[in-house]
Structure formats: C-alpha cells, structure tokens
Amino acid sequence: MMRDRQSLMFLIIIMTVVVASAGGVGIHVLYNAAFGQQRARLAEIANSQALLIESMARFDSLSRGQDYPEGKEGAIMRQVLDAHRRFEGFGETGELKLGKRNGDWIIFFLAHRMQNSDTPEPIAFDSKLAQPMRLALQGKSGTTIDLDYRGEWVLAAYTPIEGLNWGIVAKTDIQEIRVPFIQAGMIAGGVALSAILIGALFFYRITNPFFKRLVSSEATTRNVIDTAVDGIITINSKGIMQSFNPAAEKIFQYTSEECVGRNIGHLMPAPYAAEHDSYIDRHIETSVNKVIGIGREMLGKRKDGQQFPVQLSVSEFIVDHERMYTGFIQDISERKEMEAKVRENEAEIRAIVETAEDAIITINEQGRIESVNSSVERLFGYGHAETIGKDVSLFFPEPDNKAHDKRIINYLNSIDEKIVDFGRETVGRRKDDTVFPLRFAIREFFLGERRMFAGYIHDLTEQKTLQEQILQSERLAVIGKMAAKVAHELRNPLSSISLNAEILDEEIDALDSGIRDEAKVLLGAIMVEIDRVSKLTDEYLHFSRLPKSSPLEGNLNTVVVEVLGILNQELKQKGIKLSTRGLKEELFLLFDKNQIQRVLLNIVRNAMESMLQGGELNVWTKKTDMHAAVYIRDTGIGIPENLVGSIFEPFFTTKDFGTGLGLAITQQIVHEHCGEIFCDSKDGAGTTFRIELPVT
Fold it and tell me: Please, which contacts does 76-81 make with residues 24 or more away whose CB atoms are closer than 8 Å?
C-alpha cells in the first residue's frame, strides 16, 4: 500500500512538472507574441507622429514664409501642442514624449500619459536616464528596452524629427506588459494543480481494483505461457535464461532445470551463439535493434546437437529497473521443407516456361501484361521491361488488337461464357512493325482471388513457309506434267511444219524473182516463230524432267567462281564490270553442284539482260553460324515494287520473250536444298538476289 502511495505521489509530481512546463512554454510564447506586437505598435506611433510633425514643418515653410513672431520652432511647437492637446496616451503606462537638446540638457516639451501629462524636468544629456530620447536626439531610430526619464524600465520606440533636431519617443512600462501574463500563469497553475490532484485521486480509485485483478491474474498468465504452442524463454541483460516453458522443452529437448541459469547461446549453434550477447550489448549501448523487436529466422540446436530452423521474435521489458527480454520461438522445420518443395516446383515450372519455344504471357482482367517468358523477346523483339504493364494489343496489329480486348471484356460481363480458346490463327506485330502469322490460345486461371489469363503464342512463319513451298512444289509438279504433255503434243506437228517449210523453201527458189523474194520473207518469219516455239517446248521438257538434287559436300565459292568464269567473256562483250569479294575463302556445305550452277547461271543471266547499256555486277558471299549466303547485285533497270512479290510464280515474266519458269525453277532448287532465296529491287535502281543455304 505504501508503495502504491509513493507511486501516486510520483505520478502527481510528474504531471505537475509536465503541465507547468507546457503552461510555461505556452505563456512564454504568448508573452513574446504580445511583446512583439507592442514593439511594432510603439514604432508605428513614433514614426507616424514624427512624419506628421515633419509635414507640418514643411507646410509652414512653404505657406507662411520665414516671418514668425515666436520664431519658426515656436510656431511649429505651438501647432504640435495644440494638435496633441486631446491625445490621452495609450494603455495605463503608454506615453508619447517630444524633446530636444539644449546644450548639455534634454528638454521635454510634450508629454502625454493617461494618468499624468505633466512635462518632465530637464535631464542631463550624459545621464543614464531618458536613454530612448537620447538615442532619438543622436539621429537614431529603433526600439529598445531601457530606463526612461523616471528611471523605470520601459519598451520604447524612438526616432528623430528631420529638420527640427527634435526627438520623439513612444513608450510603455515593461511591467504593464508582463503583469497580465504573470496573473494568467498563476491562475492556470492553480487550476492545473487542482485538476491534477483531483485526477490523481480518481485515477488511484479507478486503477486500484485493476491492479488487484492484475495480481490475481498472474496465475492465469503463467498457465497461458505454460500451455503455449510456441517456445517462450525469458533472459536478462546478460543473456542468462530466467524461465523456460514446456513448449521450449519440447522444441529443444531440454528440461527447464537444465536451462534456467545458463546462457541462451547454449541453444544455438555457431556463429549465432557467439553473436547473441553482442547483439544485446549493442542494443543496450546504442538502441540499434538487430534482434530486439524484430522477427528473424535463425538456427537452433537441440540437446542431441541437431540443428534446425526457428523463427525468433524478441521483446524487451523492464522489471524492477532491470532490462529483460522474452524470446518467442517457433520450430519452422516443416514449413522450410514445404517452402523448399514449392521453390523446387516453381523453379521447374519457370524453367519449362522460360525454355518453351512458344511465347507465353500472363494477362490480368484489364488486359495488361503481368509476365512474359524469354521467347517473347525472340518472337516480338520486345525486352521484358518493355512489355510489363502494357496492353496485350501491343503484340497485334489493327484491327485484331482491339478484338482481343473485346473478347476479355465480353467474358468479364458474362456469367456462363468461358475463355478457353484452344487456338486460332491470326497475325502478330513485332517491335519493328513487321507482321507474321501466329496461333494464339488463351486459358483462364486464378491466383488466389485474382482472375488471370495465360496466352500461348506459336509462330506459324515456318509452317506457313513450308506449306507455301509444298504448294509451290505441287504446283510446279502439275505444271511440269502439263508442260511435258504440251511439249510432246507440239513437237511432232512442229517437226512436220519445219520439214514442210524447208521443202517449201526449195520450191520457192523456182518462182519468179518478185514473187520469190516476198515468199522468202514470209517463209523466214514462219521459220523464226517455229524456232521460238521449238525452244519453248525444249524448256518445258527440260522443266518437266528436272532431276532430284544429289547434294555432296563442296566449296560453294568454287562453284560461284566457275559460273562467273563461264560468263566472263559475255560480260565483257556487254560492257558489264564484274566486282567480287570473299570468293577466295573456303565455304564448305552440302549442295548439288549442277543444280546450284543452274541457279547462279539463271540469276546472273537475268542480271546481264537487265543491263542492256552496260553496268556493274557485284557478287560476294558471306557465312554465318547457320547459313552461307550468295549475293548478286546488278545496276540494271530493276523491277517495279508491286511486281517483286510475283517474280517466283510460274509463267510470270517481265521480259518480252520468256517462259516465266526460270525463277520458279530457281526457287524450287533452293527450297530442295532447305534454303531460301530473296529479292530486293526498285524500279530503275537495280536488283539484289540473296541465296541462303544451310551450313553443315
């Protein structure tokens, strides 16, 4: 009971000090504010009165000239006194003083004070009294706390009056400013002390039953600690264990008697055991928390030496001025095993997703991308950071991009419909705005309560290219069969027509000269057309009998050099300059030499035919990790841009005479070598062919 009374008295003293400090600070702040306001007010009064007197002096000088019966100074003084006759001062001690220096004396000739308006006696100029007026007569302006002519401490504002050598002072006693705040402080202190005493009494009466219940609940608290699932250990500031509950006994396999009185490091393996005491010492010295108040994972050590993961939370409390700590310990061995399995499964799934050939994206309900795998960058050219948070329409050109958003919105607004899209063909848009065919499939899944969608994107470019090649091959096969049949059917009639034309030529020789010459011309035209049709039938037959390729390993550059050697003389005759590079390097791969020769001869001859007035032919080769490429560039007439996409189609030609099968056969040969052929041309700016063959 005595201890409770001492605690109550201590509480009253603390509350009194706190309230007194707070009240004192508040009154001090208000006092400073009031003091500053009064200082500004006095300065304003002094300055305004000085300006008024200066204005009166200037007005008298301008309007009355210099003829004053009592002198200029007397006239102005008379006006000032008359103007201030009804002025009663300000506040109880507020006073306005007007004075001048007369030799070694300060003469006052205007005094306004609420209780007393008598003019003070002259003051010696070197006296310690009347300091504000002395400063004003020295030509200075400002405010000061100093002794006035009565020897009282005052707050005064002073300033000189220009042109008259006068000084004016507005002042008030310091005591007048302080008294209200001193009285308010005493009243507030008395009220606060009374409130504290009454509050402390009520607090004691209210909390006394609580303390009794607290004491009675100690057994209940002990029971809670003993039955807790978590291990609970208390230690002192030296790390010595003070209590050890049954859960801790079960976790560490020690009895309470074996642990109480021993250092907590006994339950930890290195390096935790050595570090623990330093954590506590550092916390006591610097208040820097490494363990206290912060949950952390660490290793514990059982009685048999087995180490296991635990979750440790430490709280701090004070008992009888001694710092104590409570540790709450959970054995998280099972949780760690489960987390390891989850991480292993996640790593496996992530590896599968990351190594998938198809692009895989996850999309939220707003159609925003939340994750992408590495195939997205390969397929679309976007980096990971460029896609996260963007709309899924980023991967699709218009108008297909809006269709994907609409499908998700329709699903969210529907109850029965499900987005289980097993894939549909559409087109995608890469970062460089090129489009390509793809198959896009969507699946719905949930992350907790969040509804998500997974998008699977498969590039159909190779598939479509292969399909096109198959169609082209089938088309060429059909055309080959048709060409063989047409050529066979035309060959016999053409042979007969040619034979009869030769006989007719002999018969014409017997005719008269006039008729003979005309007949010879007509017959010559017939023979030319017969020869042209014969060449066409020969080309059709050659096309229909195109052999299968028989690739062997060889140096591609050697074949290129041989083809250019065959055509070298013809190039010179046509005035075409040949330029090569990279042909001296070895470029080994599998190819059919005869068929590749045919490809190169066809393209080079086409280039020569496009440069009727001469030009330049550039041929070079280049090797990468995957392909060997042959480039053939001419400076000829080029191909119109709208026709470039059709040049490999059978029977398409830009020549006046031709079957339109040369480039179709060329493409077929390249495809049979698992390669590709590309054409880049502009009308009037030349043409470049690029043949890519796979490197073995």
Answer: 76/164, 77/109, 80/53, 80/56, 80/110, 81/109, 81/110
